[in-house]
Amino acid sequence: EEEPETPLQQLIRRWMNERHSPDILPTEEDLLSRLLDHIRSQSETVQLLRSDPSSSEEEHFRIMLVQTEVERVKFIVRSYLRTRLFKIEKHARYIMTNPEVQQRLSQSEVDHARRFARLTDQHFYNTVLQSLPESQQTLDDRILFVPSMITEPDKTRAVFVRARQNCPPVRLPDGTALEMQKGHISLTPYWVVEQLVARGEVELV
């Protein structure tokens, strides 16, 4: 039986999923909050020990190791948040027209998407749209054979996925079934394994 994941291992897995997924995944507010509290506590402890003149050379070495680990966790947290911010800004209008996607975001992320979409709309109107006929001054036109002006995540993009457990069969685009055993790695369109990713049965690599 496998040992349960540590909070850091959980964050690393979610970070990699977020980086490789074309869609924005559910936020991890509770996990981030716990890790940030731990980082804050560790940083305070390190500062106290560094200011203690009675600390031995061995203790100073341990302090350096703790500081290195804290910086590693900070890097992962920053990269995770930057990845989500990039996706939110890229798909801001899509997010604001899709309540189901908004449920995956924190309130601050939804607020940012709303502000970004509003600013982008205003910029497009001031620079281009106000010069067009009134019937063409919107960004959500649905014209036959013309790509949508609202950028949506490309779920047909291929991703590498590794099974964390034995998974139920999934249907591939050619109609065949793929049944992944634990440890199996496949290259497949994201939409094929989207639900497996959501349930934590597989991870993106």
UniProtKB/TrEMBL annotation:
The keyword Nucleus belongs to this UniProt entry's keyword annotation: yes
CDD domains linked to this entry: GINS_A_Sld5, GINS_B_Sld5
Any one GO BP annotation for this protein: double-strand break repair via break-induced replication
GO cellular component: GINS complex
Keywords in alphabetical order: DNA replication, Nucleus
Nucleus as UniProt keyword: yes
SUPFAM superfamilies, sorted: GINS helical bundle-like, PriA/YqbF domain
InterPro entries: GINS_A (IPR021151), GINS_bundle-like_dom_sf (IPR036224), GINS_Sld5 (IPR008591), SLD5_C (IPR031633), Sld5_GINS_A (IPR038749)
Compartmental location: Nucleus
Protein name: DNA replication complex GINS protein SLD5
Source species of the chain: Pisolithus tinctorius Marx 270
